[in-house]
Amino acid sequence: MMDLREPVYGWGERVIAAVDLVNDGSYPGVAAEAVLAATGTPGEIVNVGHHADSNTPVYLVEFLSESGSPLVVGCFEEELLRP
Q: Which Pfam families does this chain map to (predicted)?
């Protein structure tokens, strides 16, 4: 059995998008390939999960959309930075 890889970020932590986070088609109600959060957009970790097949932490991050409404996006560590 594989040891779980520990997440770098924790629940409630402030982060920023390290890259443009683009809809891969899995975010409902938003066009595929649309930018969900642009590089530099601040957000907050609202949940930390784990992708079992790749032993990779997955973060649910709440960003504010351009209209000001919350948008929760699934992110990998390499897509996030600490401010």
A: NifZ
DSSP-H helix ranges across the chain: none
Contacts from 57-63 at CB under 8 Å and sequence distance 24+? Answer: 57/5, 57/6, 57/7, 57/8, 57/9, 59/7, 59/9, 59/15, 61/15, 61/37, 63/17, 63/21, 63/36, 63/37
pLDDT mean across residues, the chain = 92
pLDDT at 1 exceeding the cut of 80: no
Q: What is the pLDDT of residue 2?
A: 61
Coil vs helix vs strand at 83: coil
Choose among 78, 72, 21: nearest CA to 54: 78
Over residues 27-47, the pLDDT tens digits come to: 888 899 999 999 999 999 999
Locate the domains of the chain by residue range.
Answer: 14-81
